[in-house]
């Protein structure tokens, strides 16, 4: 059966887990409008959910984080302990506490999350959730179907194990289409673009960066406000280098990773002395429906670090980053892309790899070492 036929003919069985009747109703109504989704049941807390998972055998949970008796994190821990293949999309409150819990949930293997909206009417909340949920569900379904064909019954969040000594077949097949017209030198900055699967991938990759790496790292992770601050705090506790949410106007310093604030755009500008580079946070429009946008950051890196930059594109939905990488490549940057097998979603790296933009195609567990080689 062709992939498109599988996506059209297979129903994604979803169990809704939330302690509030209102949100169980909202999510049920939203999912009822999505053709490839079948709601197989609801549960009011984690304990009830675990019982129903055994009998209903859902493919996916929509899981509230904060619930009585057993919260969403405990459910994820139990699923991990059981070796369950059910996927999880978290529904998170837009607070610092909710953000911190969401980061833990993503590290435990949740596929993605959406913030719980707080609009004035139920209809508005339904539309917000539908707009956020539909593309995630579609990508989860596609990802799950592909991995089922390629690797048997592996769930969407399960990554294929890698042999560090094995040849990289993806890299070998990549055509070399784009060529820089500018002579490269050692990189003085690293720019990373990442989306779905990002928090878990960054939690594995960034701690491998040495404390004295000697260059700044700028990161665009597609996330709403509040959650990027929680991501920075979580990563900072794990990494040898400092990790922080970027602040408008601050100078770019080595051995620090700057994460673009959710809901804002981040770029590089020249400082008042013409030598230092500073971070500029703006309210410029979204690009590729994203704010922060990877393309927006990458363009500024290409302009200000000609021949002296490393661009890294990692797991995520969509095409954000491709145009910016092309400009970086043309301006002499070295490009590293995460390989398909280690991506939760092979969207953002796909075209850069297939078009030959990527100089190196690497599994997640080797990206940090590939970055260090360019510095």
Describe the protein's architecture and organization.
It is a single chain. With 375 residues, this protein is of the alpha/beta class. The chain has 2 domains: 3-151, Rossmann fold, CATH 3.40.50; 169-373, Rossmann fold, CATH 3.40.50.180. The chain is built from 13 helices and 14 strands. It has helices at residues 3-9, 21-32, 46-56, 72-82, 96-107, 122-151, 169-173, 198-205, 227-236, 294-304, 322-330, 350-354, 364-373; strands at residues 12-17, 37-43, 60-64, 87-92, 112-115, 189-194, 217-221, 242-245, 256-259, 265-270, 277-282, 309-313, 334-338, 360-362. Strands 8-9-7-6-12-13-14 form a 7-stranded parallel β-sheet, sandwiched between helices. Strands 2-1-3-4-5 form a 5-stranded parallel β-sheet, sandwiched between helices. The chain has a two-stranded antiparallel sheet with strand order 10-11. Strand 12, helix 11 (322-330) and strand 13 (334-338) form a beta-alpha-beta unit. It is elongated and about 60 Å long. The relative contact order is 0.11.
């Amino acid at each position: 059966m062709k992939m498109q036929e599988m996506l059209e003919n297979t129903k994604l069985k979803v169990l809704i887990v939330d302690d509030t009747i209102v949100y169980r109703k909202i999510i049920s109504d939203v999912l009822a409008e999505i053709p490839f989704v079948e709601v197989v049941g609801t549960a009011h807390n984690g304990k009830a959910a675990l019982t129903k998972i055994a009998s209903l055998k859902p493919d996916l949970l929509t899981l509230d984080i904060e619930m009585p008796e057993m919260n969403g994190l405990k459910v994820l821990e139990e699923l991990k302990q059981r070796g369950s293949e059910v996927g999880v999309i978290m529904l998170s409150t837009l607070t610092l506490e909710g953000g911190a819990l969401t980061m833990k949930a993503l590290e435990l293997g949740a596929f993605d999350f959406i913030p719980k909206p707080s609009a004035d009417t139920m209809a508005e909340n339904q539309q917000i959730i539908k707009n956020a949920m539909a593309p995630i569900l579609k990508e989860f379904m596609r990802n799950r179907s592909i991995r089922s064909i390629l690797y048997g019954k592996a769930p969407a969040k399960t990554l294929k194990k890698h042999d560090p000594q094995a040849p990289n077949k993806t890299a070998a097949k990549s055509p070399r289409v784009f060529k820089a017209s500018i002579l490269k030198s050692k990189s003085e900055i690293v720019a990373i673009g990442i989306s779905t699967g990002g928090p878990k991938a960054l939690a594995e990759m960034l701690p491998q960066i040495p404390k004295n790496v000697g260059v700044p790292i700028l990161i665009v992770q597609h996330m709403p406000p509040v959650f990027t601050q929680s991501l920075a705090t979580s990563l900072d506790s794990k990494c040898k280098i400092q990790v922080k949410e970027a602040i408008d106007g601050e100078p770019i310093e080595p051995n620090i990773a700057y994460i673009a604030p959710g809901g804002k755009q981040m770029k590089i500008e020249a400082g008042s002395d013409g030598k230092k580079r500073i971070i500029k946070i703006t309210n410029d429009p979204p690009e590729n429906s994203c704010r922060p946008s990877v393309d927006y950051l990458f363009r500024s890196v290409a302009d200000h670090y000609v021949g002296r930059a490393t661009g890294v594109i990692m797991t995520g939905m969509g095409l954000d980053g491709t145009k910016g990488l092309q400009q970086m490549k043309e301006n002499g940057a070295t490009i590293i892309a995460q390989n398909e097998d280690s991506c939760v979603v092979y969207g953002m790296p796909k075209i850069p790899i297939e078009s030959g933009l990527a100089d190196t195609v690497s599994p997640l567990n080797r990206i940090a070492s590939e970055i260090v080689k360019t510095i």
